[in-house]
């Protein structure tokens, strides 16, 4: 499944559509510690987190995740949204907890 196909499911709220929507999503990845995510987030992952700040975008760019999904109803501030636009990072939001959000992505990938 590509990022574009995930967007078309309309499951999550679109915060920013990045430049990489043709990218394949490899797995969901859950982590709220940026230092851990920096070393372990798989390239191509749909990263599910509650960390909605500019540093999350830096880690996403470094690890080359396919997109970020903010869980638990968390939304980024304006500075973070503007940086996501500048860096072309796809940013989504979900009301569900991290596990349930990740499970939704997992189920879509394995349907």
At a glance:
The protein has 111 residues and is of the alpha/beta class. 41% of the residues lie in helices and 16% in strands. The chain has a 5-stranded mixed beta sheet with strand order 1-5-4-3-2.
Question: How would you characterize the overall build of this protein?
Answer:
- The protein is an alpha/beta fold and 111 residues long.
- It has 5 helices and 5 strands.
- The protein has a 5-stranded mixed β-sheet.
- 38% of the residues are buried.
- The model has no long low-confidence stretch (mean pLDDT 97).
- It comes from Anaerocolumna xylanovorans DSM 12503.
Feature tags:
Ser_kin/Pase_Hpr-like_N_sf; DRTGG domain-containing protein; Udp-n-acetylmuramoylalanyl-d-glutamate--2,6- Diaminopimelate Ligase, Chain: A, domain 1; 111 residues; 5 helices; globular; alpha/beta
| Name of the top-level CATH class | Alpha Beta
The Cα radius of gyration reads 12 Å
Structural class designation: alpha/beta
Low-confidence stretches: none
Secondary-structure element order, N to C: HEEHEHEHEH
What is the percentage of strand-forming residues? Answer: 15-25%
CATH superfamily: HprK N-terminal domain-like
- Strand arrangement within the widest β-sheet reads 1-5-4-3-2
Please name the CATH architecture. 3-Layer(aba) Sandwich
Shape: globular
Give the fraction of residues assigned to helices.
40-55%
CATH topology: Udp-n-acetylmuramoylalanyl-d-glutamate--2,6- Diaminopimelate Ligase, Chain: A, domain 1
Total tally of structural domains: 1
Mean pLDDT: 97
How many runs of DSSP E, i.e. beta strands?
5
Helical segment tally?
Answer: 5
CA-to-CA gap between the ends? 10 Å
Oligomer: single chain
* Major β-sheet profile: 5 strands, mixed
């Amino acid at each position: 499944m590509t990022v574009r196909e995930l967007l078309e499911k309309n499951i999550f709220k679109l915060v920013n559509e990045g430049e990489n929507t043709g990218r394949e999503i490899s797995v969901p990845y859950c982590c709220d510690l940026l230092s851990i995510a920096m070393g372990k987030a798989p390239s191509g992952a749909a990263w599910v987190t509650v960390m909605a700040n500019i540093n999350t975008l830096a880690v996403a760019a470094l690890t080359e995740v396919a997109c970020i999904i903010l869980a638990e109803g968390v939304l980024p501030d304006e500075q973070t949204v503007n940086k996501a636009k500048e860096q072309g990072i796809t940013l989504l939001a979900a009301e569900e907890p991290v596990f349930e959000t990740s499970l939704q992505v997992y189920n879509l990938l394995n349907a």
